[in-house]
Amino acid sequence: MSTPLDAVEEKAMIAAAARKIEELLDVLRIDHRNDHNTRDTPHRVAKMLVKELLRGRFAPAPKITEFDNAEGFDHLIVTGPITVRSTCAHHLMPIYGEAFIGILPAADGKIIGLSKYDRIVDHFGARFQIQEELVKQIGSFIVDMTKPRGLAVRISAVHMCKTHRGVHASHDSRMVSTAYFGELQRSAELKNEFLRECQVLAGRSA
Ligand SMILES: Nc1nc2c(ncn2[C@@H]2O[C@H](COP(=O)(O)OP(=O)(O)OP(=O)(O)O)[C@@H](O)[C@H]2O)c(=O)[nH]1
């Protein structure tokens, strides 16, 4: 899912990408060599791609601090909204929204630090994505790391490929997708509890 780069590889990748972006701007007849606004744009955009928008591909997955579930807590925990920032794989336009994660821990298993859910969402968002795969990647990673009894990952997001171009949909138009694992996949009652908590946390219909 990710291939960490060392500092030398990162620098070389940014330089190589900048040369290609120069070429692209040349094709588009943007005079970046003389125009003061776009003079540094190839390097700027290359740096943004490697160090920001795609950084999840080039950085290790977040380190997870695990704690024993000492009290054997076995009820649903729901966390969110977690801000989602990603980039659509089709048109390379921003995706932004919120994630909610529901965890049904195993009484004899592990629980992880709350902030790690935000870090995991950030890690998988930082690459070119489609939303259906994003919820699954986040969920599968948490399931592999913590082996809970059940898990749900729900994202509600705006896709700027749909609002800012193409069909020019309303900026309020969102896509909601949820991935369920384990007992949350099988139990309608648990799903309803998760969705109710999402609504409370969102302060509106999530
Ligand atoms: N299912 C799904 N579709 C997405 C996602 N992000 C973008 N899309 C859609 O993917 C499609 C890509 O479409 P194409 O039809 O190949 O591209 P296009 O001809 O530029 O289409 P328009 O966007 O309709 O102008 C568009 O309908 C996008 O709205 C996503 O996360 N999930």
Automatic annotation (TrEMBL):
<dbReference type="InterPro" id="IPR001474">
    <property type="entry name" value="GTP_CycHdrlase_I"/>
</dbReference>
<keyword id="KW-0547">Nucleotide-binding</keyword>
<keyword id="KW-0378">Hydrolase</keyword>
<comment type="pathway">
    <text>Cofactor biosynthesis; 7,8-dihydroneopterin triphosphate biosynthesis; 7,8-dihydroneopterin triphosphate from GTP: step 1/1.</text>
</comment>
<feature type="domain" description="GTP cyclohydrolase I">
    <location>
        <begin position="19"/>
        <end position="198"/>
    </location>
</feature>
<keyword id="KW-0554">One-carbon metabolism</keyword>
<dbReference type="GO" id="GO:0003934">
    <property type="term" value="F:GTP cyclohydrolase I activity"/>
</dbReference>
<comment type="subunit">
    <text>Toroid-shaped homodecamer, composed of two pentamers of five dimers.</text>
</comment>
<dbReference type="InterPro" id="IPR043134">
    <property type="entry name" value="GTP-CH-I_N"/>
</dbReference>
<dbReference type="Pfam" id="PF01227">
    <property type="entry name" value="GTP_cyclohydroI"/>
</dbReference>
<protein>
    <recommendedName>
        <fullName>GTP cyclohydrolase I</fullName>
        <ecNumber>3.5.4.16</ecNumber>
    </recommendedName>
</protein>
<dbReference type="InterPro" id="IPR043133">
    <property type="entry name" value="GTP-CH-I_C/QueF"/>
</dbReference>
<keyword id="KW-0342">GTP-binding</keyword>
<dbReference type="InterPro" id="IPR020602">
    <property type="entry name" value="GTP_CycHdrlase_I_dom"/>
</dbReference>
